[in-house]
Amino acid sequence: MGTGDTVDAVDTVGTVVVLLVGVLVGVVVTGAVAFAVALWRRRARALARAENERRIAESSANNRLSTVAQVMHFAIDSDPEGVVVVDRRQDVVLGNRAAHDLGLVRDRRLIQEVWRVAELVFGDGDARDLVYRPEQDTTRPSRPLFSVICRVQPLTSADDRFVVVFARDNSENVRIESARRDFVANVSHELKTPVGAISLLVEALVDGQDDPATVSHFSGKLQAETARMTTMISELITLSKLQGAAALPNPSPVSVDAVIDQALARSTATAELHGIELKTDGPSDALLLGDEALLVTAVSNLITNAVNYSPEETSVSVTRAVKGESVVIRVTDHGIGIAEEDQQRVFERFYRVDQARSRSTGGTGLGLALVKHTVINHGGNVSLWSRPGTGSTFSLEFPVHRQDAPCVPDTVPDQDVLTAAEFAGADDAKMNKRGSHGAPHPNTGNGT
Fold first, then answer.
1. Quick one: 9 exposed, middle or buried, by C-beta within 10 A (0-12, 13-18, 19+)?
2. Does the record bear Membrane in its keywords (predicted)?
C-alpha cells in the first residue's frame, strides 16, 4: 500500500472519529439541555402552583368579605319594608325592592312628598313620620295600595350627608280602621231605630192607657221592636265570637240531616205565612264536625232569607250532597235575585240590597255575615250564584267527618256552583214537601 493510500485511510479514520465525537458531544449537550429544560419546567410548574394557591387563598379571603356584603345587601333587598338611603342632592344611594313597590323611588330619586320631609331632617337632624298616598299601582290589583307610612331619620349621627327612609304598606290598617268606623256607625244606626220606635210606642201606650184596643195594638208593636233589638244584640255577640275565634272550642260530630230538619222546622211558619213551599231531598247520613246550634242557625238564616225574597206560590229548595271528602248544603229560591255588583257584598255586616224590604221583613242585616263566619269556622266554603229575575243559590261546603277520623280535614275541595235552573229541573219525585215542624221560631233572616 502506497503513501497516498495511507494518508487517505488516516483521513477517513479521522473523519469518522470527528463525526463520532461530534455526535457524542451533541447527544451530551442535547441531554444536558433537555434536562435543564425539564428542571426549569418543573420549577416553573411549582412556582405557578404556589402562585395559584396564593391567589386562591387571597381570593377566598376576598370572597368571605364579599359574601358578608352580599348577605347585608340581600337582607336589605328582601326586607318587606321599604328602605331608602338618600343624599342631600335627592339621589338614592341605596334602595330595596319594597321601596320601589311602595312607590318611594322614581327614576332613582326619592319622590317629592317624602323628599320635602327629608329636607327638614337634613336641616335639623330630627326624625319625622309621614303618611302618603302613592300613585295608582296597577301591578297589584288583588292588594290595592293606597296608604304608605314612612319614618325619615338621619342615617347616623357621625355623618350628616345621608338620610334613611323606612316605609311600609299601611293600606290594611286603614281599611280595618275604616271598617271599624263603619261598623260602629252601622250598629249605632241600627240600634237607634228600634230604640226610637220603642220610645214612641211607650209614649203612645201612656197616652192611650185607658183604651184597651190601643194598649193591645201598641203593646204588640213594642214586643216586635224589643224582639228585633234583642235578636240584633244576640247576633252581634255571636258574630263577634265567630270572628275572634281561631277554631271551634268543642266540636262534635253533627248530622247534616238533623241540621237541615231543624232549620226547616224553624222556617216553616214563615214560609206558610208567605205562601212558599219548602222542599228538600232525602237523607244523606253525612256527618260533619262542628257546633250544631251554629249550623242550624246558618241554614235557617238562608232559608228564611230565601222565603222573604221570593214571590208567593213559589218554592225554596234545600238539598244536600256528599262529594268526595265534602258535603254540600244548598238553598235555592226562585225569587228576585241579586245583581252581580251586590253579590260580593251581601255577606258584609248590615249590608242590604233592598233597605226598605229588609226592614219590613224584620231582618237585622247580620244573617248572611253569620252564615259566612259560621262556615269559615267549620273549615268550609260559602258561595253564591244569583241572577236577577231568576233566583239565587247559596252553597255551603264542609269537610265530611268520618267516624274513624276525629280531626277536621286541612283543606276543602273547591265547590261546584249549582244554579237555580238546575234545581228547577231536578227530579221532583225525590223532593218532599215539608209540613209543620214544631213551634215557630223568631225571624232571623238577613235582608240581602
1. exposed
2. yes
Question: Which contacts qualify for 150-154: CB closer than 8 Å, 24 or more apart?
Answer: 150/104, 150/114, 150/117, 151/127, 152/114, 152/117, 152/118, 152/121, 152/127, 152/128, 153/121, 153/127, 153/128, 154/121, 154/125, 154/127
Whole-angstrom distance, CA of residue 393 vs CA of residue 219: 38
405 forms beta bridges with: 402
Q: Rounded mean pLDDT of 10-30?
A: 68
Distance CA 349, CA 367 (A): 8
β-bridge mates for residue 105, sequence order? 110
Partner residues linked to 232 by β-bridges: none
Q: How many helices (H) and strands (E) does the chain have?
A: 11, 15
- Which pLDDT score is estimated for 61? 55
pLDDT digits 0-9 by tens, 349-395: 776 665 544 455 555 667 788 888 889 888 889 999 998 988 999 99
Contact between 332 and 315 (Cβ < 8 Å)? no
Strand-strand pairing, 326-333 and 109-110? unpaired
- In the chain, what are the domains? 82-169 (3.30.450.20), 181-244 (1.10.287.130), 250-433 (3.30.565.10)
Q: What is the CB neighbour count within 10 angstroms for residue 109?
A: 13
For residues 268 and 436, the answer to whether their CB atoms sit within 8 Å is yes
Q: Of residues 185 and 274, which shows the higher confidence score? A: 274
Geometric angle at alpha carbon 108, from 107 and 111, rounded to 5°? 75
- DSSP secondary structure string, 349-403? TT--SSHHHHHHTT--S-HHHHHHHHHHHTT-EEEEEEETTTEEEEEEEEEPPBT
Instruction: Identify the band that residue 434 occupies on the pLDDT scale cut at 50, 70 and 90.
Output: very low
Q: What is the CA radius of gyration of the chain?
A: 43
Q: What would the grid cell of residue 216 be?
A: 193591645
What is the C-alpha to C-alpha distance for residues 226 and 270, in angstroms, rounded to an integer? 19
